[in-house]
Amino acid sequence: MHPATPCLIVDSQVVQNNLERMQTYADKHGLRLRPHTKTHKSIHVGRLQMELGSKGLTVAKAGEAAVMSNASSDIMMAYPPVGPERAEMLAELAKRIQLTVALDSEFAVDQLQQAVDRLGVTIGVLVDFDLGYGRTGVQSAEASVALAEYVERASGLRLDGMMLYAGHISGSPESQREQMAKVKGQVDELLTAWDAKGLCRDIISSGSTPSAMASHLVPAVNEIRPGTYVYNDMNIVRGGYATLDDCAARIEATVISAAVKDQVVVDAGSKTLTSDLCGPAPDSGHGYLVDYPEARIFRLTEEHAQVDVSQCERRPQIGERVSIIPNHICVCVNMQTSFWWSEPGEEMRLMPVDSRGLLV
Amino acid sequence: MHPATPCLIVDSQVVQNNLERMQTYADKHGLRLRPHTKTHKSIHVGRLQMELGSKGLTVAKAGEAAVMSNASSDIMMAYPPVGPERAEMLAELAKRIQLTVALDSEFAVDQLQQAVDRLGVTIGVLVDFDLGYGRTGVQSAEASVALAEYVERASGLRLDGMMLYAGHISGSPESQREQMAKVKGQVDELLTAWDAKGLCRDIISSGSTPSAMASHLVPAVNEIRPGTYVYNDMNIVRGGYATLDDCAARIEATVISAAVKDQVVVDAGSKTLTSDLCGPAPDSGHGYLVDYPEARIFRLTEEHAQVDVSQCERRPQIGERVSIIPNHICVCVNMQTSFWWSEPGEEMRLMPVDSRGLLV
Q1: Is residue B191 classed as helix, strand or coil in its secondary structure?
Q2: Span B87-129, pLDDT tens digits
Q3: How close, in Å, is residue B140 to chain A by CA atoms?
Q4: Which residues in chain A are contacts of B267 at CB distance < 8 A?
């Protein structure tokens, strides 16, 4: 079966392998796995993760939490619940599922408290602490204690612990060991400060796929929430954390022009692949052509990918279908309304990208 | 009314002004206007364009043609109809609307002919000629004649003329005048070659918003298909082709964190704004904060925009809503499932982005 291009095709067996590998790691080290569903945005895939042993799921949006409540009744939103619609949707959802959110401000606490108070529900809270990525999160152990105490005083909110994000940690296993030793020092300082005040830190959650399998190097971490590992992409491959064979999701595209010398054009542009470059190799182009490793996608416009084929011994022909591993699969999946699920021996099935394009 | 953030809000009055300005230009120079709907992907906006005098609409995908047939019965696909699903959908559509496609290969002619033959319909064809942008299009006058003759011989296909794309033409009015003089030379050569063979060139179509109002400098051009002008964006503003006040579509976002020094984080990340940089000013950041011109969105991750506010006299506060003009509105619109249509004196209305996320 050949669905119209461009389209996203997901190989169920590679997904299964990726999920099992991470679950095995988590089990071996006594870590709860709570995958971030931002990558797949699929209830079906979320259920697979739960069936294999995940403790719950992670989301970035309140609407995603609502969608993913079809796969798990234990959801963490790794995003500040700021904005009244966000807080209200979470409170509504907390009527029927176990919900935890991460935040880094008293403002967020106040706004969430108003929403939960109105509905008489309880939501768990993690204090977001910045390990050095510099995006969100309180900046010192003292600030984390102050915010944790503020949460403790807020009716309807339950202090559950802290959220960390290791998005800045990358590199070889040796390099990661050094970086994680520093993280361990940061976390130990937090624990000392929290324990001195008797603050609840049942959950110490860490994130990111590249750092996931170094999580045990910070023994206090007891929960991890990698996302990209389910499909992998060229960021992960070129970063050295997975192989091409571990990439479960590929864009299938058609060569629609070969009029310009040493170039073919395929129908997967920035509205399919997105303009995200490959972090570890920004000059490697806009994705990897599986059957033409010497080809380079050097320019994307909305519906066109211009591919330099001057280095290819054999060149793709007009009308030919090619397979592309995207640089960043999370944003690529988010472009699609649906994807094709490929299981061995079965017709491919079209599945919705359930939690993309939500209003809240 | 304050819809949940992030969301896209379109100002109907600015749209009206933008549409009128382009229609007036086209009318003044006797050009048929056939706007590219890739920017708005909205039947409603397509209808506005038709009501103001557009001759028809332009699309990039066969599915978009089907959707936009709700706004116009005269549609041009500025994209090669390669791939059997694409050709078949077009042939099906040609049963009920006037359809023209652009192509640059005999392969595309053959595949389209098979589809139209099966259904006994006729589709108009423009030969795509490359003016120098280097993406698609035949590379010489001789090649254009050969392909035009190939189209003439194909049953069910009607040679209508040629498609040009001036995506590489930019700069000041003086600079554009020079560049368009060169284009005029290219087109004159094409016309001489086509006329020597008596080939039909009823339609000579040119594209791109930056070059649109220089189209009359190539007198043979009789149809233009700008897209971005309907909303405009920072590419257009920083290129010097429109002002901030001409930007009709803005992302409304909420400040969700202010934990890191000299930074706020808003909830419009790459899954809202896309990672597209501003072509004329790649270092200007990921969009323009209307009320904080000194602020700079220096990093996007999927749901976070990190904004450097160190240069701001007054800084946005946590919980505050801010308005962002995106770098590239076409891809930004394509991220959204729907948008808010704002008319003076009326409640905002939620409208679908009708032709996004299509399978063909």
Answers
A1: helix
A2: 999 999 999 999 999 999 999 999 999 999 999 999 999 999 9
A3: 10
A4: 82-83
* SS3 label, residue A356: coil
- A263-275: average pLDDT: 98
The domains of chain A are located at 31-226, 236-352
The verdict on A235 touching B (C-beta cutoff 8 Å) is: no
* CA terminus-to-terminus distance, chain A: 36
Distance to chain A for B137, nearest Cα, Å:
6
Is the pLDDT at A1 greater than 80? The verdict is no
Which has the closest alpha carbon to B38: B306, B233, B263?
B233
User: Is B222 in CB contact (< 8 Å) with chain A?
Assistant: no
Q: What is residue B40's predicted lDDT score, i.e. its pLDDT?
A: 98
Distance CA B310, CA B312 (A): 6
Q: What residues in A contact B165, CB-CB < 8 Å?
A: none
Q: Which of B86, B265, B275 sits opposite A4 (nearest CB)?
A: B86
Per-residue confidence (pLDDT) for residue B43, from 0 to 100: 98
Q: Cβ–Cβ of B330/A136 closer than 8 Å?
A: no
* Mean pLDDT to the nearest integer, A181-192: 96
Average pLDDT of span B316-341: 98
| The architecture CATH gives domain B11-231 | Alpha-Beta Barrel (3.20)
CATH of domain A31-226: 3.20.20.10
Chain A CB within 8 Å of residue B334 CB: yes
HSE toward the beta carbon, residue A268, CA cutoff 13 A: 33
